[in-house]
Amino acid sequence: MPLPTHIDPRKLALQGNVLEGTVNVGDLPRLESSVNSVCGPLEAKVQFGLDESRAKIVNGDARVSVETICQRCLDPLVVELTAEFAVQVIWSEDHINRVAANYEPWLVLDKMANLNELLEDEILLALPLVNYHVVGECTGDTFLEEVEAVGDEIVPDNPFNVLLQLKK
Question: What distance in Å separates the CA atoms of residue 3 and residue 116, rounded to the nearest whole number?
Fold first, then answer.
């Protein structure tokens, strides 16, 4: 079931609602431009509520598979992205100092907020800085330095390792 795009987070928090569903790939333009392709809809569960101080909070998680490029072999690589988030809804930038330490601020200036933007932000933060295949499955593994153990130490393979062994 698709998640609504525009929501009133304050009202949903007062009611303690939970939204669970998907977001279409076309509604995630920044994610699409950051990867080769998005392999399916983004799945999310978003729970609205109030904390002990009656602040409006939103907790949830989002999951999506994306195809990127392996930085070692330049072949396609599928990466499973998962993001868990906890945000506190605030009305203006003046309220940022009131956000509890265990929440990130979610600035909602109007009555309605774009839920897709929040979910896309969280997934973008979950993107790895560099993408590699698992060692042994990558065609670029031949370019990795071989490492050999000398005693209890792990020393990169180089021509001077023989001198290190003679020294001991």
Answer: 8
> Could you give the CA distance from residue 152 to residue 44 in angstroms, rounded to a whole number?
46
Domain that holds residue 149: 144-168
Our count of domains for the chain comes to: 2
Q: Rounded to two decimals, what is the model's pTM?
A: 0.78
For the segment 111-129, what is each residue's pLDDT rounded down to a tens digit? 999 999 999 999 999 999 9
Do residue 31 and residue 68 come from a single domain? Answer: yes
Evaluate whether 39 touches 68 at the Cβ level (below 8 Å). Answer: no
44-66 tens-digit pLDDT: 999 999 999 999 999 999 999 99
Please check whether residues 105 and 159 belong to one and the same domain.
no
Residue 33 located in a structural domain: yes
